[in-house]
């Protein structure tokens, strides 16, 4: 069976008019004799609305009920797509994750798909039907509804492609593919033809919302090629694939920036073994992810300053946890929400010396102050003031020849 998985994102199914367009795209694959599995997100804005409602009800909204609530948007869009296909005389029906079932493991809100039962869907495909499957949803071994993290329909599509051994997995979205940087932030951004899982994973984790990071991990582990393309215009998009398939001559492949970081500095922390562990242990216990960390060398051997970044949404909880932590002493705690992390990513930097210098010099020439730095083999990230983001993006894009 020649199977294709087509995933449509929120904006692509954002209105009934767009859903009619999506149905045309689906029909075109039926004409090409594919067995089509469709995965859909909720109509754009719907999931955010549901999340906000849960917050209005309670600051500590039950995570079980959160998943039942926020996964409901996908039911609506899938029914609308199936309804439109039926209107066109095509055999189709919606499938909610629990009806298949799509099994997940792990915490509510951030579960992972571990198994998809193929029997019913295969039978339906063989009968000539087009299944329209809810993205983002799963069900756990207690038969409770789960969700797999924001943007999770990408991972649903990739896991469906894996379990059904699909020939293609195509992510339809509101841009033409993966760009050198967010095309909605920089007009000069250029579409990338092919990108490796490794680079895409860094880009996604560092702020390129176009693909959910977990979905790229799943794709890499299972060697699933992904095509990202537009649901508005019929142009070739971007292929996400293994490194071996790529001949890349650029040092830097992409640049990302974040909007929701916060910086916390603890001034006058006692400089002795175990202090950093005492600060970060309760944060990790509360599932607060600490990202960048920098500790100054203490001038007098007794005290030091420690700075780290977290997600903005975790700031209030972080403040509380640190204030109530009797294991640490410090003189002052300072916060800053006006920060943004800008990162350059590329496998080319492994073999090219001087990339760090070029990045820092470019920012210095623009009088942009670097607050925190972190690096890995294929990325360099710096924390800067939010107001400088546009300037920094544009200067780095030019410096690393991405404008061309
Ligand atoms: P969908 O609803 O289809 O899942 P998303 O909103 O999750 O779509 O992702 C698409 C958006 O990702 C684009 O509109 C774009 O603004 C943003 N984006 C961020 N970085 C990039 C990038 N490097 N390339 C393409 N799009 C990007
Ligand atoms: N609707 C979900 C979200 O907004 C899943 C997705 O869009 O992929 O996060
Ligand atoms: Mg998305």
Quick take:
With about 400 residues, the chain is of the alpha/beta class. It contains twelve helices and 19 strands. The strands form four sheets. An eight-stranded mixed beta sheet has the order 3-6-2-1-9-11-12-10, with helices on both faces.
Topology:
Elements: E1 3-8, H1 16-31, E2 35-40, H2 46-57, H3 63-70, H4 72-87, E3 92-95, E4 102-105, E5 112-116, H5 119-126, E6 130-134, E7 137-139, E8 145-147, H6 153-163, E9 168-173, E10 194-196, H7 197-205, H8 213-222, E11 226-230, E12 238-241, E13 254-257, E14 261-270, H9 275-285, E15 293-295, E16 303-311, H10 315-323, E17 332-345, H11 355-365, E18 372-376, E19 379-385, H12 389-399
Parallel strand pairs: 1-2, 1-9, 2-6, 3-6, 9-11, 10-12
Antiparallel strand pairs: 4-5, 7-8, 11-12, 13-17, 14-16, 14-17, 15-16, 17-19, 18-19
Helix pairs in contact: 1-4, 6-8, 7-8, 11-12
Residues 9-10, 41-42, 47, 73, 135-136, 150-154 line the site of aspartic acid.
Explain this structure.
- This protein is of the alpha/beta class.
- Helix content is 33%, strand content 26%.
- It has a domain at 3-174: Carbamate kinase (3-Layer(aba) Sandwich).
- The strands form four sheets. It has an eight-stranded mixed sheet with strand order 3-6-2-1-9-11-12-10, with helices on both faces. Strands 13, 14, 15, 16, 17, 18 and 19 form a seven-stranded antiparallel sheet that branches.
- α1 (16-31) packs across α4, α6 runs parallel beside α8 and α11 crosses α12.
- The longest helix is centred in the first third of the chain and has 16 residues, at 16-31.
- It is globular, with a radius of gyration of 23 Å.
